[in-house]
Design goal:
The chain is of the alpha/beta class. It contains 11 helices and 10 strands. 40% of the residues lie in helices and 19% in strands. Strands 1, 2, 3, 4, 5, 6, 7, 8, 9 and 10 form a 10-stranded mixed sheet that branches. Helix 8 crosses helix 9 and helix 10 runs antiparallel to helix 11.
Length: 300
């Protein structure tokens, strides 16, 4: 069965999330709601849905998301029972009524072939009076590296709520604890996929809300986001660079360099790594340009 985990903190749109779960045409799922000691206790609202779908609600004594969103996700995941597949649903996102039905209908197609499954998605922009975008769809099967690269190039979008992942992969890799969990989901799909393809269900949508309350929609905390981007590039993109194709590596090496420069000067060993990879990829023009930037950084 499918576990839908909701790390709860914001009440603003939470009823729409719960209503979408009650509207599921297939009830073969269980919801686990982990309340991050929110100032807005949702227990009365949640009780309205008692009997409409199976759920467990737990209010934690201390707020953890303000320190580490990833650790809040992980303690919510620790609530689940025997379910082998996990969706982390944002407390302001919601589902098509057919999402769970589609999941079970496609199950045999991806079982033992994929560790990461995603749904099509629609963006709900509260800054544009709740405007709902067209559906973002994806290839039926796709490498995690190609999927990330398309997002990197602005050719698609991606958010945590639209993915389902195997508990086995989560237990093996865990989430990378970047500031604000910025890029933690990107890193997860690269890790969790474990050399298997991502499978996409395009017939049902996850509705992902964008507002000033969301981290992704907020212009605040840019310094933390910048640090998270550097950590993501250093810990994930750089170490997985051989998995990307040659032309993708060129762009990602520049991203790696820029993400560090946004916070500090590159160290000598980081310049060395860049030039090593440019040489390995036979990208000699980029190597020469990188060498010039290195000289300028240290000696000019």
């Amino acid at each position: 069965m499918l576990a839908i985990v909701i790390p709860y903190y914001k009440l603003s749109f939470f009823e729409e999330t719960l209503q979408s779960l009650a509207n599921q045409t297939d009830k073969r799922f269980k919801v686990y709601i982990g309340d991050d000691a929110s100032l807005k206790n949702p227990s009365n609202l949640i009780e309205k849905y008692r009997g409409q779908f199976d759920f467990v609600y737990h209010r934690f004594e201390s707020n953890l998301g303000g320190i580490s969103l990833v650790k809040q996700w992980e303690r919510c995941i620790a609530m689940i029972g025997e379910e082998e597949w996990i969706m982390i649903l944002g407390d302001d996102d919601y589902l098509d009524s057919t999402v769970v039905n589609s999941w079970h209908k496609h199950y045999d197609a991806f079982y033992n072939k994929s560790n990461v499954v995603r749904f099509a998605s629609k963006a709900v922009d509260m800054r544009l009076n709740g405007f709902i975008s067209d559906s973002f769809t994806h290839p039926l099967w796709e490498n995690a590296t190609d999927s990330y690269y398309r997002r990197f190039k602005g050719q698609t979008r991606s958010s945590l709520s639209e993915y389902v992942f195997s508990k086995e992969s989560f237990l093996k890799y865990g989430f990378r604890d970047f500031p604000l969990a910025w890029h933690s989901d990107d890193a997860a799909w690269l890790d969790f996929s474990n050399d298997k393809l991502i499978y996409t269900i395009c017939e049902s949508n996850i509705f992902v809300r964008h507002s000033d309350e969301c981290i992704s929609g907020s212009k605040e905390n840019q310094d933390l986001k910048s640090i998270a981007s550097e950590n993501f590039c250093t810990q994930c993109i750089y170490t997985k660079l051989p998995l990307f194709v040659r032309e993708q590596r060129k762009d990602l090496l520049m991203y790696y360099e820029t993400s560090i420069k946004n916070n500090r000067k590159l160290k000598f060993n980081e310049w060395y790594k860049l030039m090593y990879f440019y040489t390995l990829n036979f990208q000699f023009i980029q190597l020469l340009k990188c060498f010039r930037r290195f000289i300028k950084s240290f000696y000019i």
